[in-house]
Write a structure and sequence with these properties.
Layout (H helix, E strand, L loop, with lengths): L1 E4 L7 E5 L8 E6 L2 E6 L5 E7 L11 E3 L3 H13 L14 E11 L7 E8 L2 E7 L9 E5 L14 E3 L2 E3 L2 E2 L31 H4 L3
Antiparallel strand pairs: 1-2, 1-6, 2-5, 3-4, 4-5, 7-8, 7-10, 8-9, 10-13, 11-12
């Protein structure tokens, strides 16, 4: 779940992205200051817009913002007041973490993509399809997990690349808009002593 806010350009509206719309047909149901965006075919909620949100919580940031559990509870009370049964869940787990490439296979339907098994926690390995030229077994890098918002504003969701499932993205310095990032393709290369699952810290993980 991603919270975004830009009062200057959008107005006093908190936009909450719940899931990938997958380019499906969408409809909007609005009650009071709450609008629910959902897929037509399966009625699944993909986003919420909460208007006049400053009357409920105090948001000072711009772009992706992070709310406390108490602030999310205030939003849930507003949803309930307007007659919506769903609840927002405040997911505060890190979305950019140190990962380690355990295995690399050439994509069967591409001359530049690789299918990688990437360890993102002590007990979790995910598949990520990557096109970076420096992908190699044993490399530690920064992984954007589903639910992450990139500095460009793009969102990371589970998907497929040429028929192969992918559950995140291994990041280049340029994609993370790091200072003095090389303007070329290639994911971040971390030292072998970095601990898998550690949240991304630009001050620690980038010396560009």
């Amino acid at each position: 779940m991603i919270f975004t806010y830009n009062k200057e350009y959008v107005g006093d509206v908190l936009m909450i992205v719940v899931s990938d719309s997958k380019n499906e047909a969408l409809e909007v149901e609005r009650k009071g200051n709450v609008a629910r965006v959902f897929q037509v075919d399966n009625q699944e909620t993909v986003a919420w817009n909460i208007f006049q949100v400053s009357s409920l919580v105090d948001i000072t940031g711009r772009g992706q913002v992070f709310l406390t559990d108490q602030e999310v509870e205030a939003l849930n009370q507003e949803l309930q007041k307007e007659g919506f049964a769903e609840q927002l869940v405040n997911d505060k787990t890190p979305k950019f973490v140190v990962g380690e490439i355990l295995d690399v296979l050439v994509h069967p339907d591409s001359d530049h993509l690789h299918i990688c098994q990437v360890k993102i926690a002590e007990d979790k390995v995910v598949q990520i399809v990557a096109g970076a030229p420096n992908v190699v077994q044993g490399l530690k890098t920064i992984v954007a997990l589903p639910g992450a918002m990139m500095p460009s504003g793009s969102l990371i969701f589970p998907g497929e690349l040429r028929g192969e499932k992918s559950f995140g993205m291994m990041c280049s310095p340029r994609e993370l808009q790091l200072p003095n990032a090389p303007q070329k393709r290639g994911i971040i290369e971390l030292g072998s002593d970095e601990v898998v699952g550690t949240p991304f810290d630009p001050a620690k993980h980038w010396q560009g």
